[in-house]
Amino acid sequence: MFALLRIFNKVVVQQFYQLNAGFFLVVFFLAFGIQQPPTMLVSPYFLTGAVTSSIFIFSVLGVFLLYYLKCFNFLLKTIRAPENEYLFITSLFPRRILWLSLGLTHLQLFLPALVYTLLISYYGLLTAHFWVIWVTTTYNLLLIFFTILYFHHQLAQTIPEKAIKNIFTSSEKRILAPPVLWPLRYLLRQEKVMLGLTKILSLGVLYAFMTLYPYPQYDLRPTYIGFLTAVITQAMLVQQVQQFQETALSFWRYLPYAHWQRFTYQVILFTLLLAPEIILLFRLNFNPAAIISLIFLVTFGISVILLLYTLLYLKLNRETYLKWVFFIYIGLLLFLLLHPPLYLLTILLFLLAYLLYYRNYYVYEQ
């Protein structure tokens, strides 16, 4: 059993936490970096009152269900990846060993949410709200049993895929005619869970900032910070887009387009990627006095996401890239708190992104 568990740990668990380090960093910052001690989600004062609310309990479980879907999707993609075909041999192990290994793998992936549900159960016990213990225990048992049964079936029945299907074989391939826009279709069809969870997180963050600190009761700096945070959460999507462009769209490099044309296409691509956040921004803050500032904020967000994209052409590994994303976020956060002219910062970021793109695009090799 331990040999099988070590395989799952190396192939699934370690890869999951390495690939999602940026996601956990953002969640940690939102949970602890901007909260006062009495309102922290793990503080005894907060939890003692919160566990008495069924709305809070079921909201937490709903959020954790989204996180479970993220874990589930990653595990499914990992098992079906062509380089991991050998995992299907694990179906020959005794059922008890395979089930136990899958269960422990689930617990390791779901550990952050599991710890918080145990904390909720503990405070439910202290406050004599025993229904909280029953609900969270049933919830966790249902998830772990579903994971075990589903992936046991997958390993026992699914024929390994020899290669990832080409997403351009369908009759819909000309819906997004310019090839540079095909990454959006790739995200919608092949990375639905990642795209959905990222958008839920980014829109939730932006909505929270704009409702807690509405304009004109407060100045626009909280809105700036909320939009910047929403943009930074797209970092993993940006990396998926760049990898897709450098693999499935490698031919695009050899087409006769000037640098500025290629860069303009990326501006269009990432503007469309940020469309939900832009719509929410104007929907919640449609104030004539703030329209110009919001337009500058949108262009600022596009310049930030372009900078994240062009950083990838420096051949950074994932860990180094996420460190750069974090430092850029902290640096821009401090700048926004100082309230500098946003258009000057936007111009500088656009110039820096274009310079990185111009210098590194043709010398980059996957």
Automatic annotation (TrEMBL):
It comes from the Bacteria. Keywords: Membrane, Transmembrane, Transmembrane helix. The chain crosses the membrane at residues 16-34, 46-69, 97-125, 131-151, 193-212, 263-284, 290-314, 326-357. This is Uncharacterized protein. It comes from Adhaeribacter rhizoryzae.
